[in-house]
C-alpha cells in the first residue's frame, strides 16, 4: 500500500517496522503508535556511505534522536523532527541485511 507517492515503511520493511514499534513501546516512547503509518522515502543519499532509511523528506531531521537497544547495545537510531513528533529517518546499526529496498540505485 502507498501513502501518496511513497510506500509505507511497514509495507517496505514489515519486520523492521514491527521491531521498532515494539522497542518504542518497551521504552514508553510516544512515536510507537505512528510507525505503521510512516512513509518510506527511500535510502538517504547524503553521502556515499549513509545507510539511513528516510521516513520524511530529506532535510526534515532535527537534532533529537531515540536510541533503541537490545541487550545493552544500540541497534537502531531514530532521528526526529524538531517537534519530536515525527520520525524522519532510521539508522539500523546491527548490520542486518534489509534487502534491495534499502539499497541506493545508481
What features would you highlight for this structure?
five-stranded antiparallel beta sheet, globular, alpha+beta, 106 residues
How are the SSEs ordered, and which strands pair?
Elements: E1 2-3, E2 6-7, H1 9-12, H2 14-27, E3 42-43, E4 53-54, E5 65-70, E6 73-80, E7 87-92
Tell me the total number of β-strands.
Answer: 7
SSE order:
EEHHEEEEE
Determine the N-to-C terminus distance. 25 Å
| Molecular shape | globular
Low-pLDDT parts are: none
Strand order of the largest sheet: 3-4-7-6-5
| SS strand fraction | 25-35%
Classify the secondary structure makeup into a structural class. alpha+beta
Mean pLDDT: 86
Largest sheet: 5 strands, antiparallel
When the domains are counted, the total is: 1
Number of helices: 2
Helix content: 10-25%
Rg is: 13 Å
Structural notes for this entry:
The protein has one domain (2-95). It contains 2 helices and 7 strands. The chain has helices at 9-12, 14-27, and strands spanning 2-3, 6-7, 42-43, 53-54, 65-70, 73-80, 87-92. It has a 5-stranded antiparallel β-sheet with strand order 3-4-7-6-5, covered by helices on one side. The chain is globular and about 30 Å long. The two termini are 25 Å apart.
Amino acid at each position: 500500500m502507498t501513502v501518496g507517492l511513497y510506500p509505507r515503511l511497514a509495507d517496505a520493511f514489515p519486520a523492521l517496522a514491527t521491531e521498532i514499534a515494539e522497542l518504542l513501546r518497551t521504552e514508553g516512547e510516544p512515536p510507537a503508535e505512528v510507525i505503521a503509518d510512516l512513509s518510506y522515502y527511500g535510502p538517504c543519499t547524503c553521502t556515499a556511505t549513509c545507510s539511513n532509511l528516510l521516513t520524511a523528506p530529506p532535510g526534515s531531521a532535527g537534532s533529537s534522536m531515540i536510541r533503541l537497544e537490545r541487550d545493552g547495545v544500540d541497534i537502531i537510531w531514530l532521528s526526529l523532527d524538531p517537534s519530536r513528533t515525527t520520525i524522519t529517518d532510521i539508522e539500523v546499526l546491527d548490520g542486518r541485511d534489509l534487502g534491495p529496498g534499502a539499497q541506493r540505485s545508481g
